[in-house]
């Protein structure tokens, strides 16, 4: 039988040990997996916007949430492996940037909530049942860049009306590549333009593709929406400058960097929305109940400095139409 003194001693020891055990059993802070088809450098501003959305939901990286990043750097075949790694890491949310990354995430898990940020139609891609009620474990935000090909080509034609041949640079490994070709072909036909295609999924292929487009008299270059091509925008801009070719990109950042023009949604806003959704899901909301966020505005950005270097005069009507003019 244990005496009173021994009992008190044992009890005191248990009290001393209990806080340590309790601390050890506390769950770690939730981890968000971030799966990108492009590069960390190209995604820096988008990740910052994602963090702003998280903060709006009450989460901050390094304080009450952690983020694990995986970037494919345009090598899309790595995405399924990265998605599996993040799921095995027991992430609370899986965030996917680009259609290819979102499809890899969906293939990797049916239980971990997925939040995407992409430019395609997620219904057509088979990611969600519909935009208002995505269903299952996935939702997100789309900037619908791949649905803007006709409008972007029309604006590009107004900017360089003397050009009758337009070269479209696209990534054949993008799941939307064939659709991008079809839509660009239809838009060019409606405008009476000829369009030629060149494909690139590596830096070397970008060099060869841009050169081939110029050789085919594709004096104006339309850059298709793709995470890898976004990451390589500076290379494309440098090559276009060397050949004296006007360029049209999807996003403001590329026009600021030296592209002649851009037309598309505000990508930072899309990533902010994705971050907010990721935080709301951490708080217990179901992804299938959160409608896919869509852009409410598309921005036309013109770079007059680049236009001057190319010897181009921007029409007054287009200047008046622009949301931002870089001088």
Radius of gyration: 24 Å
Q: Share of helix among residues?
A: 40-55%
Annotation field: number of helices: 13
Low-confidence stretches: 1-27
What is the architecture of the largest domain at the second tier of CATH? 3-Layer(aba) Sandwich
At the fourth CATH level, what is the homologous superfamily of the largest domain?
Answer: Response regulator
Oligomer: single chain
What profile does the largest beta sheet have?
7 strands, mixed
Structural class: alpha/beta
In the sheet with the most strands, the strands line up as 7-6-8-9-10-11-12
Q: Determine and state the CATH class of the largest domain.
A: Alpha Beta
Q: Note the gap between the termini.
A: 90 Å
What's the helix-strand series? Answer: HEHEHEHEEHEHEHEHHEHEHEHHE
Number of domains: 2
The third-level CATH topology of the largest domain is Rossmann fold
What best-fitting shape do the alpha-carbon axes yield?
A: elongated
Strand content: 15-25%
How confident is the prediction overall: mean pLDDT? Answer: 88
Strand segment count: 12
């Amino acid at each position: 039988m244990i005496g009173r003194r021994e009992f008190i001693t044992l009890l005191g020891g248990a009290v001393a040990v209990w806080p340590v055990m309790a601390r050890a059993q506390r769950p770690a802070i939730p981890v968000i997996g971030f799966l990108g088809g492009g590069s960390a450098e190209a995604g820096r501003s988008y990740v910052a916007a994602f963090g702003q959305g998280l903060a709006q939901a009450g989460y901050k990286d390094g304080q009450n949430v952690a983020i694990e990043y995986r970037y494919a750097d345009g090598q899309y075949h790595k995405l399924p492996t990265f998605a599996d790694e993040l799921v095995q890491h027991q992430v609370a949310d899986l965030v996917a940037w680009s259609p290819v990354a979102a499809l890899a995430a969906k293939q990797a898990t049916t239980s971990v909530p997925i939040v995407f940020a992409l430019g395609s139609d997620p219904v057509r891609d088979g990611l969600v049942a519909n935009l208002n009620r995505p269903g299952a474990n996935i939702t997100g935000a789309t900037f619908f860049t791949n649905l803007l090909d006709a409008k972007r080509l029309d604006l590009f034609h107004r900017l360089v009306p003397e050009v009758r041949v337009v070269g479209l640079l696209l990534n054949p490994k993008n799941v939307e590549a064939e659709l991008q070709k079809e839509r660009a072909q239809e838009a060019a036909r409606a405008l009476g333009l000829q369009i030629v295609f060149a494909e690139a999924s590596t830096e070397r292929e970008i060099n060869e593709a841009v050169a081939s487009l110029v050789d085919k008299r594709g004096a104006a270059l339309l850059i298709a929406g793709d995470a890898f091509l976004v990451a390589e925008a500076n290379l494309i801009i440098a090559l276009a400058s060397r050949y004296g070719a006007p360029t049209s990109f999807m996003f403001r950042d590329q026009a600021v960097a030296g592209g002649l023009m851009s037309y598309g949604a505000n990508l930072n806003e899309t990533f902010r929305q994705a971050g907010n959704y990721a935080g709301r899901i951490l708080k217990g909301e179901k992804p299938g109940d959160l409608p896919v966020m869509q852009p409410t505005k598309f921005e036309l950005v013109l770079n007059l400095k680049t236009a001057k270097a190319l010897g181009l005069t921007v029409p007054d009507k287009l200047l008046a139409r622009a949301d931002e003019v870089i001088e």
